[in-house]
Design a protein that fits this description.
Helix content: over 70%
Strand content: under 5%
Organism: Lynx pardinus (Iberian lynx)
CATH class: Mainly Alpha
Order of helices and strands: HHHHHHHHHH
Main location: membrane
Family: Belongs to the G-protein coupled receptor T2R family.
Protein name: Taste receptor type 2
Distance between the termini: 44 Å
Largest sheet: none
CATH architecture: Up-down Bundle
Number of domains: 1
Radius of gyration: 21 Å
Pfam families: TAS2R
Amino acid sequence: MLESKMLDFYLIIHFLLPVIQCLIGVLANGIIVIVNGIELIKQRKMIPLDLLLSCLAISRICLQSFIFYINLVILSLIDFLPLVKNFAVFMFVNETGLWLATWLGVFYCAKISPIAHPLFFWLKMRISKLVPWLIIGSLLFASIPLVFYSKHTWVLSQEVLLRLFSPNATTQIKETSALQIVFLARFSPPFVIFLISTLLLVFSLGRHTWQMRNTATGTRDSSTGVHVSALLSILSFLVLYLSHYMTAALLSSHIFELRSFMFLFCILVFGSYPSGHSIILISGNPKLKQNAKKFLLHGQCCQ
């Protein structure tokens, strides 16, 4: 009886938290898209960073919606068959978002990192021009399974989801292993690139900040504060990206039972990335932060 009540409590919490995650994620990413969209209309152009942030925000709105739908399926509030049919689309959205986040990490590394190396100097000078091509390349690469392997992906997703949601279903382990291989093959490249670029940025920026602190006087103090703030923002980005990737790997391995505490916890961690990092992006961008405050104040006035 007590275990049943505890399970019901976990399920209620697991319903409320995804609702909050979805609302925050859609609102935060919506602000990014709207602010940059208004800027595009006014200026008739969009700087590369804003273009990358806008595309990333759009992908995260879709991803956050998919994650909320998955939560409803887990709680048996809706049928899971539509999820099976659209599983390839979910994989496309997730992979696109990971690639765009990876290029955002590379962009920050190229623009902010004080590394004095010819390769970094070359990348710093050309990264802005490369952004549109990186976005197009990410969309094309992520769409390969959707276009050429849609039938096979559908079969894999059907087998895996039947194994998850049907306790009596008998699914061959080979299919699960195949899905794990697909996951590692598709999602590991952006993860490795992001990890290398972000760690380079963290170590170089951390060393530069430490050197500035030892000689900080006057105006250098404010500069040191900016570097520390940027370092904390990058570290938060790294933690959220790692948690998203690791929980996705754990969920694809099917080591946790459906609706178990660890399974629900992994789903919550998985959904915290698109909403949590978007808040960090807004708080670290003066233009987005100012406009976000205007939207919130306008919303309060309307009430």
